[in-house]
Amino acid sequence: MNRTLLPKPPHWVLEEKFISLLQSCKVSKHLYQIQSQILTNGLEQDQYITPRFVAACARLKEMCIARRVFDEIPEPQTALWNSMIKGYAQNGLYENVILLFTQMTSMDFSLLNCFTFPIVLKSCLKCNALREGEEVHCVVIKSGFRGNHFVGNTLIEMYSGWRMMEAAYRVFCEMVDRNVVAWTSMIKGFILCHDLVRARELFELSPERDIVLWNTMVSGYIEIGDMVEARKLFDQMPKRDVMSWNTILHGYAINGDVEACERLFEEMPERNVFSWNGLIGGYARNERFLEVLDAFKSMLIEGNVPPNDATLVTVLSACARLGALDLGKWVHLYAENNGYKGNIYVGNALIDMYAKCGMIENALEVFNSMDKKDLISWNTMIGGLAMHGHGADALNLFCRMKNAGMNPDGITFIGILCACTHMGLVEDGISYFQSMVDDFSIEPQIEHYGCMVDLLARAGLLAQALDFVKQMPMEADAVIWAALLGACRVYKNVEIAELALEQLIKLEPKNPANFVMLANIYGDLGRWKDLARLKVAMRDTGYRKIPGCSLIEVNDGVVEFYSLDERRPETKEIYGALRGLTKLLRSYGYVPDLQELGQGT
DNA sequence: CTAGGGTTAG
């Protein structure tokens, strides 16, 4: 067929073609191809295509391309301005939103419409631009948009976000006809300030109460931990949707009532992925990791609600805590086969799971395969390496992190200091600690002081460690004294040990592990009289040390295993495996201290 | 093209 005989398609056909092309555009490369097609057709200033082009750029995080196109247009119309502003907001470039808005107002006031303000006001809140937010509010008034529901509501939201309740309430009162959304935002504002009394007053006054408003009020009580009032309200609701049920379920989960959580989950008329995540998250938050795995398995067996990234992350964190490597690997495969390969949350949870299960190689593989990494990815990997004796690799990775332009935070330095401790690099640890304060302006937290005490103490510098404790700007906690006490045993320092125990008894009088530690030191040194005295003191407290418990993956499950435990049918195999491990360790020169076996049980 | 409600990682 001769193409030249075909008539030129009408304008609107081309428009539709480009719009659908832009909507389905998945990679930046195609963006350039579409752009050149638009140019060859002379449509670069088309009032329908260009905003869509900008929207596609925003979706693919290519706002620079959008900006170049935008700058070429002599007199952009409102829709194009708005699409640029929205694109910047979507990509977190709030400063650009404000800049563009300023430019827009300085050019022509009539460019602004009711779609412009909500995005700009939200951006002001997000980047904490208080003065600019107030200026935009002035523009709202001058341009006559204060009567718009969307604009008014976003103003309430903005001021509430800054806890400027007088300003928020003034906007609310000045609204000529408030709808239920405005009431909800106002109530949400008081909830943010934990002012449940005023929130409830408004709730009672509201002329209309829809499900969203009821749910908001219920979650307000949940946030302040008042499950009784939350439940009372939930029971009074004229109508409930899945989200109402999920809200109260999550409330029990975060307030530590696992049993109520389970009961509610059973009662629910309908369950979606948030319901399952609520139950699974409830188990996880309350350290019931075995139940996390069981619930996850039930979810898969029931099969009508597929897990999402949040589910996988929670399950992986439980695997990490339990050492359930097989299930962790299974989740890894599941994630890759179900579109979570590039998911940063899942990637980070996988790194942590592999690291905690001792599979550093797998953790590194996941880390290296991630093309998007955030601070948590780096911190998890550095911490994982440090925790498992790869201190040098952890420090190297820290260098790579800085070279990649990623700014470390306090958690990063926990990993770094831990790496130094494990390698006995006292000098380096001290200089990293200094660098944290001087180069990165990170204020050391009690955990960092704890790391430093550990660093010094494990290196045998007990007196220096004690000095450090005394110089700390805050009171040392039990973790720090226990670290010091532990090191005292290794270096057989009774004086500091007794001092540390004295503090520990004040901080946690019910923890017999502390007495056991000092008893061990007396035993090591043959101070039997002191030992006897301590045993009497221990008996007087009436507390017994809880036996240490290990979790071991057996076939497709995880079992609890205590020291000298003979309850399990697998006992023989477990002790067999232990003997094998001990033998292996001996061949590397390790001498097990058999006296420790069964201590305190 | 614009407004109010849920989960997840170190």
UniProtKB/TrEMBL annotation:
GO terms for biological process: RNA modification. The keyword Repeat applies. PPR repeats lie at residues 77-111, 210-244, 272-306, 343-373, 374-408. One of its GO terms (molecular function) is RNA binding. The keyword Glycosyltransferase does not apply. Keywords: Repeat. Pfam families: E_motif, PPR, PPR_2. NCBIfam families: PPR (TIGR00756). Belongs to the PPR family. PCMP-H subfamily. This is Tetratricopeptide-like helical.
